[in-house]
Amino acid sequence: MNNSKTSLPDLARRKFLGTCCASVGATGMLSALAQLRLIGAVADTSGVPARAAAPQPDFKALVCLFLSGGNDANNLIIPTDSPTYNAYSIGRGALALAQNAVLPITPRTNDGRSWGLHPSLGINPNGSTNGGLKGLFDQGKLAIMANVGSLAYPLTKAEYTARPDLRPRQLFSHNDQQVEWQSSIADRPFTTGWGGRLADLTNAFNENNRIAMSISLNGQNSFQVGRNVGQYAVGTNGAIALTGSGTGTSVNGLRTAALKDALAAQNANLFETAFAGLTSGAVANSALLSSVVTGASPFASFFAGLTSNISQQLHMIARLVNAQQALGLRRQVFFARLGGWDLHDNQVVAGNTATGAHANLFRDVSQAVTAFYNALASVAADDQVTTFTASDFGRTYNTNGDGSDHGWGSHHFVVGGAVRGGEIYGRMPTFAIDGPDDTGRGRWIPSMSVDEYSATLASWFGVSATDLPVVLPNIGRFARPNLGFMAS
Questions:
Q1: Residue 426: CA count within 13 A, CB half-sphere
Q2: Predicted confidence band at 18 (pLDDT cuts at 50, 70, 90)?
Q3: Within this chain, do residues 155 and 114 fall inside the same structural domain, yes or no?
Q4: Nearest 5°: phi and psi at 170?
Q5: Residue 326 and residue 390 in one domain
Q6: For a surface tag, which of 28, 120, 366, 451 has the fewest beta carbons within 10 Å of its beta carbon?
Q7: Is residue 247 part of a domain?
Q8: Residue by residue, what is the 3-state secondary structure of the chain?
Q9: Domain match, 12 and 66 both
Q10: How many domains are contained in the chain?
Q11: 129 in a domain, yes or no?
């Protein structure tokens, strides 16, 4: 298929038809047709919601939580020992958190420095401040990945300066770096995402799957673009219904019946036949999905009072995990996304830097991910589902006044019962402008590649060492194909 598959059409049938008509040749037509996998269809709301129950023992799911815009992870994990904190305070300027505001953590290994988390990362779903992501770290269910970023090759500062050809393409660009993070290929044009390649390779686990194993809760993304397994879009309330659809003898019901009759008609034209078949399949898939997630949620109590979009996305993912037996799935790949991280200004409140736009985003993530973990643990699925963060890039260590600008290496976290948590993996940077890890303004050269980070997750998901290059084509350039943060 050609690369038009990465530019997904909207759900309007008129635009879809226009896209298809504009395609030149069979290859372009088939690529456009493949996007019908994203079409939400007529929902049958008569189904009874599935009860909360443990997934099958061999079930596994990966959840990519994309922090769109570039998270300033220099305020996610903060040094607390006096010498390093003093360097941090000077380097961060107006963005620095007060030393006594940080939530101290105790990693299992010690690099001679001490660390803490942003205070908003201690907020529980109910609003109390004694748990959240910090609590999951203390319980050994959350691990921190230090200074991760897109890399085409391992780079020292000397190599970065002397060999521009070894750098990733279009550093510091939102669009390019989002694609490089989601594809894990930093030196070639985009074709597929690493989540899509993972799905293509592992879809054989799903012997009787009735919908695609790749499900997006936030529309199109590069991460889940594969060659064989398409991404299936689901809303936070479940299956997406065609406008004006219905059942019975109502106007909407008659309209829906007419559509089904038209799709069922025999067509001599190959294009019309393919369109009808794929659309009918989308209708059936959506009705099936609706039948298992419509109605009261078995996890409503865990998300009670949470109204953020990311909490709604993760709530629906929990319900879809709960429905995996009904859907015939033993492997699932999910994509959720939270925007708003491109904070060039108003990142913090002057005089109280533990508050502001960045703190609010961290609060939403802490509450949503903690609720998600607790919901899964209630059905003994916490060992089977792993949530990991990704983002465009980190941000500058120094400030532009009351915000930060586009950076490179960033810190991330992984959550789940199979995570070897309570630890910082990799190497934290030297907090010094123009220091050994800095390309300017505290844009850290990553010491851990997206490839290594992703390969560790893929190995846990069931990809053999032999097949890792299928999912991560550049993994052979890096020394650590398994970083050890996942239990086998």
A1: 29
A2: very low
A3: yes
A4: 50, 55
A5: yes
A6: 28
A7: yes
A8: CCHHHHCCCCCCHHHHHHHHHHCCHHHHHHHHHHHHHHCCCCCCCCCCCCCCCCCCCCCEEEEEEEECCCCCHHHCEEECCHHHHHHHHHHHHHHCCCHHHCEEECCCCCCCCCEEECHHHHCCCCCCCCCHHHHHHHCCCEEEEEEEECCCCCCCHHHHHHCHHHCCCCCCCHHHHHHHHHHCCCCCCCCCCHHHHHHHHHHHHCCCCCCCCEEECCCCCCCCCCCCCCEEECECCECCCCCCCCCCCCHHHHHHHHHHHHHHCCCCCHHHHHHHHHHHHHHHHHHHHHHHHCCCCCCHHHHCCCCCHHHHHHHHHHHHHHCHHHHCCCEEEEEEEECCCCCCCCCCECCECCCCHHHHHHHHHHHHHHHHHHHHHCCCCCCCEEEEEEECCCECCCCCCCCCCECCCEEEEEECCCECCCEEECCCCCCCCCCCCECCCCCECCCEEHHHHHHHHHHHHCCCCCCHHHHCCCHHHCCCCCCCCECC
A9: no
A10: 2
A11: yes
pLDDT digits over 425-467, tens only?
A: 999 999 999 999 999 999 999 999 999 999 999 999 999 999 9
Q: Which two tokens stand for residue 268?
A: 């001599």
Amino acid 7: pLDDT: 36
> 184, 194 in Cβ contact below 8 A?
yes
Nearest to 446 by CA among 419, 407, 418: 407
* Averaged confidence pLDDT in the chain: 87
Q: Return d(Cα 382, Cα 325) in angstroms, integer.
A: 16
Residue 482 lies in a domain: no
User: 397 and 259 in one domain?
Assistant: yes
Q: Are 263 and 307 members of one domain?
A: yes
Q: Which residues contact 132 (CB under 8 A, 6 or more apart)?
A: 120, 121, 122, 123, 124, 366, 367, 370
Does residue 30 surpass a pLDDT of 50? Answer: no
Q: Which one, of 146, 172, 160, 165, lies nearest residue 447 by Cα?
A: 146
In the structure encoding, which two tokens stand for residue 309, read together? 């979009």
Q: What range does the domain containing 23 cover?
A: 1-37
Give the span between the Cα atoms of 85 and 95, in whole angstroms.
13
Count of Cβ atoms closer than 10 Å to residue 20 Cβ:
20
Q: Among 149, 176, 122, 192, which Cα is nearest to 389's?
A: 149
Span 208-238, pLDDT tens digits: 888 899 999 999 999 999 999 989 999 999 8
- Asked if residue 192 and residue 150 are part of one domain, the reply reads yes
Report yes or no: 442 and 462 within 8 Å, Cβ to Cβ.
no
In this prediction, residue 276 has a pLDDT band, given cuts at 50, 70 and 90, of low
- What span, in angstroms and rounded, lies between the C-alpha atoms of 54 and 376? 9
Measured distance CA(329)–CA(320) in Å, rounded: 10
427 and 282 in a common domain: yes
Same domain, 299 and 366: yes
